[in-house]
Amino acid sequence: MILVSNSNNYIVEFSKSVNELLNERNTDVLKKLIGPILNSVKIDYMFMSKFLKWFDEFQPNTYNIQHSRVLMLLQCYDKIEILFGKSIFRKLLESNDPKIIQTLLLDSTSGVTTHFFNEFNPINETILPLSTIVNTLNYTTANQKWLYIVDSIVNTIYFSDGFIMPIDKIENDFTTRADLIRKEKFTAHTIRYIIQVVLKGGEVLGSQSVMERLISYLCMMTFQNLTKRDIDSLKDDYIKLIPLIFTYGSSYRLRSFIGNDYRKPKKLTNILLANSYSQQIYRPPNYLYYLNEYYGKKVIEKEVLQFYKDWKSKRKNKEGVIRFLCFAQHVIDSTFARDNLQAIYDEFSAALIKTIPKPNLLYLFSVWGDYIERYGIANEKDFNQLRFYIVVESKINEKKERSHQVIYEFYITLLASNSQYTLSNFTEIVNQFVQKPCNFMVYLNQLLLKPPILNSMKTHENSNSLYNQIKEIGKISPEHFCYLLEFFMKYEKVSEYPKMVPQFIDAINSNKKWLVRDESFYITILKFYSILKVKNPKEAHQIFEKTIRSFVKSIDINKSWESPVKLDIIYPFIKDIKEINYLFKQTKELLTDSDQFVKIFKHLIDLDQIGQKYIQEYINSMIELKPSTREFMNTPFRTLKILDGLYRFINLDSQIFKLHSNYFQVISKYSCIPDGLKVISSNLLRSLHDFTLVYESFIDSLLYIDSDFIETQKFTYNLNQFNEIHQLLFYKNNNSIDIPQEDIIRIHNRLVTGIIKMNILPDLLMYQIKMIIMYFKPFKSIDQSLQDILLKQFQSLDIFSKKSILRYIKQNEIRVLEYLNDKSISGLSFNDINQQEQNLNSQTPYVQNLIIHNFVSFICRDKTTSPSDILSLSLVSKLFFKSVCLSFRDYKIQIHKHLNTKYQLSRGVWSFMSLGCHHLNYRDLERFHYQQVEDVFYQLSSLQIQKHMVYLVDKEMTNLTHLSVEIRDDMLLSCISNMMNHCHTLQSFKFSINTIDINLNRISHISNILQKLFSNNTETLKQLKFKYLVTFDRQFIQLIDSALQLIKNHEVAHPKTFKYQISLHLTMDLPIKIDVIRPLTTTCTHLILERYSFYLYQIKSDMFLNLKSMTVSADSKDYLLANLSKFVMSPEIELQSFSYISNYDPTLAIKDIIKKPNLKKFQMVINGSVQYLSSPKQAIDSILSTVNQNPTIKSLKIFEGGTTGYYGNYKTTKVPCIIDIHQLNCGDFHPLNNYHFIKYQ
Fold first, then answer.
1. Which end of the chain is more exposed for a tag (fewer CB within 10 A), N or C?
2. φ, ψ of residue 548 in degrees (nearest 5)
3. Distance (Å, whole) CA 1028 – CA 967
4. How are beta strands 1236-1238 and 1195-1204 bridged, if at all?
5. Residue of higher predicted confidence among 1006 and 1201
6. What span, in angstroms and rounded, lies between the C-alpha atoms of 1093 and 990?
7. What is the DSSP letter of 185?
8. Parallel, antiparallel, or unpaired for β 962-967 and 988-993?
């Protein structure tokens, strides 16, 4: 068996070797040869398809030669996206062979790539059942690839719509949220497998976040969706989960500490504290909640005790500390915690002594603080140890030390647990806060409000002295007093409140942005206000105004992220109409969200008639806004949503009436109305007590004409909007409005009478006319005058419209309009139509089908048409579907890049390619099943090859008329040379050599390819485009020159039928002698210049006498433009097309070149983005102005983009300029779109 040969036919010999290997039955020979061969061919899906067919013969649990071949193939082939996309992956996972499972899931050889993750996420159970992937652990161990797959599957089990809900959005209220309850219950079987994932997945390095998320699903989102019987059956499984809850329940907790910047700043400031204080410290939910509820606290306590015993026997490192802290946090309310309190405190103390990372230390303080808050601290030794650590080790008493929020909170809790010590050292402790910026008063306030401290202060023998110290601190600044206000309110009598106002009022709405303004800040002031306004309304009103202004400002400043305050906190303090008015005065501009309005209004409803009246008046003011006012923008939509949120709670009939009686005068100002708002309108109208009266007014709004001239476009727009609402009310079988039949007739009579009397029917589209015809359906009779007006408009329609209307009347049994089907009245009858159409269809079906096919193929070929648009077109009818299929068979339709490669292509009966596929890029063959791919390949009419090809063509390419090849390696040259033996119908051939790294011994293949092209396609070949990247090797130049002579000779022999373009690509970063390539320049018709600073001065016009077009990638050196212009403008150079890729403002570059006589096409690609130019419009206008001065230029294209790559492997990316073409001064040019301009004359 020969694997490699030095002859030019080595690819043929190599292919023979592969075919021998495919049929080889000896496993020893296979083991020896399969590795070297697959390393050469696995880059080519077409070639690999021969080997992939081995998988079809594979039986999961049958050990034979197929089994051995599959195992060896897996060990060499690492494209998991192919295995997964072709359903091979799932089949192999069902094997019981540990070697196959291990090889398939091995990270190092099975291609766990970002590409795979992006393409196939999410993976659902339809593609790969969870049980299949979990059962593989019977034969291998979990790793990153395994964990990724199961995590993706579990996410789709819990979130089938693909939108994964973040844990922190549900953890605080997971026991009461109705949206966590699914329509379909989970099965115990599924949940048991997910628990197994957690039990096994923890062994994978870096699995912490995945484990935390899966545990949260199991503990917070599962029990609500199980039957009682399944919950009971899962008891043993959940019990096994408890140690892992304690292990992974802290991962988010630790990240919350890391997220808060605890590093020591250069300078302690108020703003640093304000930023950190506003961050909420994460406290994990109680994952044991449902376990305690369903399995009993005694059972869980038993497991808790067992975990503690196991932990004590194994604790060795910081991970052990974290597990214990998480465990302690979850069991804080348990009997175990109360019975073993000192033992738990001892563990906390031991952890404190150890050197542990800062986040872990903060976690320790957080958990220990919770314990001290609940149980106190009885051991004096523990208290002294902690106080020493906080004060000395954490340096909390130093003036410039900024400790983490958790440390301050813990310190406050610690001091509150020993009020005797705190009050004995009161001055020292207070000074620790006073010497820091004033925001630190929030912590002092928290300490003073702790019940043990507050009560002890009031009963202390030096109570007045202690209180006076705090009063003196309050006098330092209004901000100090404001932060201590809650304490003063607890200590002072209400009668003293008025005296306190001047001391803090200036701090409420202070312009000092660094102040801590959280919910506690505002609630305290508003409580103060509520008490004060009873006897001191004047002072209270002043506080209220300042507080509301400050509150609104806080929301506004923080609206780009989650605000530390929410509107809800203000509602309880709004009691009268003055407060309501002032709140809305401040929030009117801020509240653009209708949901916020609804929340406020719902609160006002509870204020009895005051609130209801205010809501009604406020909505009236929104409805009565004039369209010309600035506030009008989106107000109608917002008003609809507000009405929808409130009509169930208060009577808003009057407001609904007002809005809909002027509805179409308002909505005509908008180009688009969301469908959801039409549903809201129908619901509001349906809710009315007097529906008929309001709906008639709604119809009048539709029919209203504010001038003698009817604006057809405006009316048809309004009619479409009306009809959608009308359909929701009258034609929804399950939700039609329930009103008397006489009211339905009355409404429709008003509607059709108004429309018909407008005499607008002939100006409407057919679907709109049918819409109006359907409005006659409820009638048993109509007035003679209305019949006459309708008949007159009907008779003015064209014959095709009349036929369509009569057919529609007949099909829908609109009996009241059957008089139009009377030939003696209208001149036409339905029977005539049937007979005429039968005759027409029998005579001209081909013509009709041809028109449809041409229409469909035009749309499919348009590059701007999206895949979804083609799909919609195909669903119109069977004829349209067939036309789409014919378009894919007969025309070049690009497979869009944004069509995810995980979606496979098919030749099935319902595939667009069921009749064939006209064009493909060679790389897109991967999308087809390996059993079909060769059939697809050999029926192609157009093929583009840009990537590695190793496949040996061995059959006739009977349909292939267009071939494009980019040569990038030696192997591809050999394959194309062989392929040309089987191509006899080529009409066009594009041949590009985009590399300088081809072995010169292989260059002779170029001439061989061209010889075969010309000899095999003499009668059919019409066009050749040959492009090559120049290397300055004399042997290369000689070989290329001989190939170019073949092209010239064929052109001489076929001057009328054959055209060619020879593109010479120059790019070089080093000095070269351009004369070396002079033999090649005379045949060049297209010149590509890139990196030309080293050779441009050597290029002479007499070298390129046949040059017709140029592409220039601009050099950054301005002085070269003169040389470039001189070359282009030479009279010897007769350019017809010029393309320029600019690196800077294009107006500076090529004005002279654009003036080139006889130039017909000009294309500009502006590297970067047009919008980054100093004046984009001015730049484009400048180009247009210059182009207009050249009478021969007929086509202009302007793109954004640039080039990427090097030495010929470059790509030019082009996208339309983001410029409003209507603002441009186009002159004689006309825009076809936003990048292409043409001149007709």
1. C
2. -65, -40
3. 9
4. antiparallel
5. 1006
6. 29
7. P
8. parallel
Which parts of 49-203 are beta strand (E)?
none
pLDDT bin (cut points 50, 70, 90) of residue 972 is confident
Q: At what angle do helices 497-508 and 537-557 cross, to 10 degrees?
A: 30
Give the pair of three-digit tokens for residue 1104.
């390129």
Q: Is 1229 helix (H, G, I), strand (E, B) or coil?
A: coil
The pLDDT of residue 894: 74
Q: How confident is the model at residue 109 (pLDDT cuts 50, 70, 90)?
A: very low
In angstroms, the CA 269 to CA 359 distance is 22
The Cα 332–Cα 346 span in angstroms is 15
Q: Peptide bond preceding 1191: is omega within 30 degrees of 0, i.e. cis?
A: no
CB 1047 within 8 A of CB 1008: no
Residue 642 sits at φ, ψ, to 5 deg, of -65, -45
- Contact predicate 539/498, CB 8 Å: yes
Strand 1161-1167 with 1137-1142, pairing = parallel
pLDDT digits (tens, 9 = 90+) for 625-648: 655 444 544 567 778 888 888 888
The CA R_g of the chain, rounded to the nearest whole Å, is: 41
Contact 986, 961 (CB under 8 A): yes
Res. 714: pLDDT tops 60:
yes
Name 26's Cβ contacts closer than 8 Å, sequence gap at least 6: none
CA atoms within 13 A on the CB side of 464: 0
Closest C-alpha among 1157, 1148, 1092, 1165 to residue 1128: 1157
Tell me how far CA of residue 791 lies from CA of 535, 759, 828, in angstroms.
78, 11, 12
At residue 795, what are phi and psi to the nearest 5 degrees?
-70, -20
CB 994 within 8 A of CB 986: no
Please tell me the distance from the alpha carbon of residue 996 to that of residue 816, in angstroms, as a whole number.
81
User: What residues contact residue 554 under an 8 Å CB cut-off, 6+ apart?
Assistant: 517, 522, 563, 564, 565
Whether 922 and 943 have beta carbons less than 8 Å apart is answered as yes
Strands 1137-1142 and 1109-1113: parallel
For 754-757, which contacts have Cβ atoms below 8 Å and span 24 or more sequence positions? 754/699, 754/700, 754/702, 754/703, 755/703, 755/719, 756/786, 756/789, 756/790, 756/793, 757/786, 757/789
Burial of 595 (0-12, 13-18, 19+ CB in 10 A): exposed
Q: Supply the pTM of this predicted model.
A: 0.65
**Degrees, nearest 5: CA angle 459-462-464:** 90
For helices 691-703 and 712-730, what crossing angle results, to 10°?
Answer: 160
What does the alpha-carbon distance between residue 425 and residue 1151 come to, in Å, rounded to a whole number?
85
CA distance 656 to 650: 12
